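Note to self: keep these together.
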Amino acid sequence: MRTAISNVEKQVLWRKYRSIGYDSDTANKKIKEFCDFIKSLALRLKKQNKSEEDINKRFKREFEKLCRRVETERLDKENE
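Structure:
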């Protein structure tokens, strides 16, 4: 069961945040917030007796949503 994001996933997020103008501290803070969210989500799903497969699928969906939100924010900043 995944309760944390990998270093590669953190690097992807960090680069995305930096590309839209966040400083290192803010990017790291946002990544930590996401990590905390994923950890609590995984524990909550485990308490609901969800399978590891379901938890991993949910993790992937949440990671994809976050990447899309960051990309949308980048596009919005470019169009300003």
